[in-house]
Amino acid sequence: MVAVARHRADTADDHNEQRTPTASSTIDPIGGHRAAAGPEGLSVWATAQATGPVQRRGRYVRESVQHPARMLPAIAAHAVTAYTRPGDLVLDPMCGIGTTLVEAIHAGRDAIGVEYESRWSDIADANIKHAHTQGATGRAGVIRGDATSILSLVPAALAGQVALVVTSPPYGPTVHGLVRPGTDGVAKFDNAYNDGTDRGNLAYRDLTGLADGFAQILTGCHTLLHPGGVVVVTARPWRKHGELVDLPSAVIGAGIRAGLTPVDRCVALLAAVRDGGLVARPSFFQLQAVRKARAAGTPMHLIAHEDVLVFSKSQTDSGSGSLKDTLGGGMVA
Ligand SMILES: C[S@@+](CC[C@H](N)C(=O)[O-])C[C@H]1O[C@@H](n2cnc3c(N)ncnc32)[C@H](O)[C@@H]1O
Fold first, then answer.
1. 147 within ligand 1 shell (Cβ under 6 A)
2. The whole model's pTM is what?
3. Deepest of 98, 110, 249, 311, by most Cβ within 10 A of its Cβ?
């Protein structure tokens, strides 16, 4: 039996959920399913009861599909509802096309994002505008810039104001992207963050460089978080030349270096829970890679989850002092 967290996108007729006596049901705009959430939650998040395209359809602008590594909206939505209250401020320092921001403002939270590539921050802007036409009540803004210097990008007044950081580091310079038939079989497109000439994007660093840059970003986030604030980092298992890259350990190390405490490790499902089993939705390239590996005797499985690393800032830590230090005392409102 598979016990999963009752995410808002769970199906009503799912017999495997763990219910709590206080659970209440709602209709979820992302999955269109009846759902309930208990106060304590579970470490397995059923975040793919609907496919990515179904979760995004009508809720995100069409151009969003061009981003090579978008977060499933239900993952961001689950993190927001699990760790914040209406009116709280949510931050994504590597916000891509703005999934975290869109889900936060739909849930009545405010949100701020930073994105290195203007190509993606423009789409994030469009997604926020679109969410407001659909009744999202929260306020949101996106800053284009390098989040390793996040404290020089955001207003100083935000120090100690953020309740939750939800983010996902880039994993490798290229990802699966989309495919179209070409003369030599299939051709990939929309599979990179930029044209590869700008190395400021952490996607173009090796694992050590990525972890160092991510630690810098989380250090800035630590200052922006209020005491007891939470950081949720999702990392999809990633293989390079067929070998698993230990991104989750690098993320945990980066969080500790940033002064955060690792408090939980969850799993966000990329497969649907149906009739007591998991229904995977692999991409063409994932299937191809796993089939090849297994044919060659390597016992590889299809990836059906993302790791979710959860950190918190100590209740007794204040944030504004270190922002002042970082900015040399020249605080701007
Ligand atoms: C895995 S993607 C995040 C996708 C996002 N969660 C979404 O749903 O669209 C990582 C993002 O980090 C951005 N990025 C890379 N280096 C950065 C940096 N130094 N500062 C800010 N953003 C950066 C990339 O351009 C990419 O859009």
1. yes
2. 0.83
3. 98
Does residue 160 contact residue 222 with C-beta atoms inside 8 Å?
no
Look-up: residue for tokens 């709590």? 20
Structure letter (DSSP) for residue 205: S
170's CB contacts (< 8 A; 6+ apart) are: 69, 94, 193, 201, 202, 203, 210
DSSP state letter for 173:
S
**81 CA → ligand 1 middle, Å:** 22
Task: Return the number of other C-beta atoms located less than 10 Å from residue 196's C-beta.
Answer: 12
Instruction: Give the Cα separation of 131 and 101 in Å (integer).
Output: 10
Distances (CA, A) of 312 to 108, 175, 226, 315: 22, 30, 10, 9
Asked if 238 contacts 279 with a C-beta cutoff of 8 angstroms, the reply is no
Token look-up 């219910």 returns 19
Please give the structure tokens belonging to residue 205: 């660093």
One-letter amino acid identity for 124? A
Rg (C-alpha) for the chain, rounded Å, is: 19
Mean pLDDT split into 10-residue runs, the chain, 333 residues: 42 33 42 51 94 96 93 97 97 98 98 96 98 98 97 97 96 55 55 64 87 96 98 90 88 98 97 94 87 92 95 81 37 28
Hey, how many other C-beta atoms are within 10 angstroms of the C-beta on 232? 26
Q: Which of 118, 175, 201 to mutate to test the pocket of ligand 1 (most atoms within 8 A of CB)?
A: 201
The CATH homologous superfamily to which domain 63-265+311-326 belongs is Vaccinia Virus protein VP39 (3.40.50.150)
